[in-house]
Amino acid sequence: MSADYLDGNALAGPFAEIFAADVTVAVGRCASCGLTGPVAGLRVYAQAPGLVARCPGCEEVVLRLVRGPDAAWLDLRGTISLRIPLPGAGA
Amino acid sequence: MARLTWRPARLVKVREETASARTLVFDVPGWPGHLPGQHVDVRLTADDGYTARRSYSLAGPDGVELTVQRVDDGEVSPYLTEVMRPGDELEVRGPVGGWFVWRPANPAPVLLVAGGAGVVPLMAMLRARRASRSATPFRLVYSVRSPEQLYYADELAAPDPGVDVSVVYTRTAPDGEARPAGRLTAADLGPSGEADCYVCGPTGFVEAAAGLLLELGHDPARVRTERFGPTGE
Q1: Residue B198 belongs to a domain with what CATH number?
Q2: In which domain, by residue range, is B34 found?
Q3: What is the SS3 assignment for chain A?
Q4: What is the mean pLDDT of residues B211-228?
Q5: Interval B169-194: pLDDT, tens
Q6: Are residues B115 and B36 part of one domain?
Q7: I need a surface site. Which of A40, A69, B181, B225 has the fewest CB within 10 A?
Q8: What is this structure's pTM?
């Protein structure tokens, strides 16, 4: 695996185009090894067409994001769950 | 909070930092403010409609101020560092990234570890500390190849009370420097008590520095990292 990767922090801009909450602070669980951690801690490979985020524990693909001319494709098959912090109800 | 859109940004001021890096200050109407450590996406559009997009850390606690290192075969940084003039415009989207941030209300001591251009978001934290009149103890360990590569040299030479700055030279040390030039070691980072650690730099540097922090006994949950690609572009 190439050492030329970024952190999940690099997903903040592309996700901000899609979601109202900051997904990089969400805690995800890897479908392959079960490791939990912040999306900001994933290893992001930006050389592919689109962005490929891999688990820092087992290197399996956790999510992929491709921005096309008129749509974004988000592939989450490597993710069991995302816990997204939100302001309290009524906030 | 709404989804982010691109906003026009007009360059108002430029400061040279080194022979190959400069700070650009933009006027961005409607900028919502940000936390130190956050970044912006920058978009350039050519006359023929071709666009190029890059992500840069914000260098200050207020407004949109970026420090950009020229990458010789880069597509965006040569324009930002050599061609763009005050009055010229580009587009920004942000702020983004809520993980690699320091909140002035947090009283925990802070250890900042910078590799080269990775000092930029950490400088934003130091400047935010000053702006908020925080007394939180800060320590910055800044690894650079040689004195000519140092960003913010004057500001770092006169740190605020409660801020400790050490520069680690990896290739060439200035005259009178006691530490011989060489890679960052555990001795450069220690001894240090419990702290919130922020490490930013090229991927290899971040790997090495984060590993040293764990060796020194820092809690992995309190070591936050931000890597940029090998070229910074």
Answers
A1: 3.40.50.80
A2: 7-96
A3: CCCCCEEHHHHHHHHHCCCCCCHHHCEEEECCCCCEEEHHHCEEECCCCCEEEECCCCCCEEEEEEECCCCEEEECCCEEEEECCCCCCCC
A4: 93
A5: 999 999 989 899 999 999 999 877 89
A6: no
A7: A69
A8: 0.90
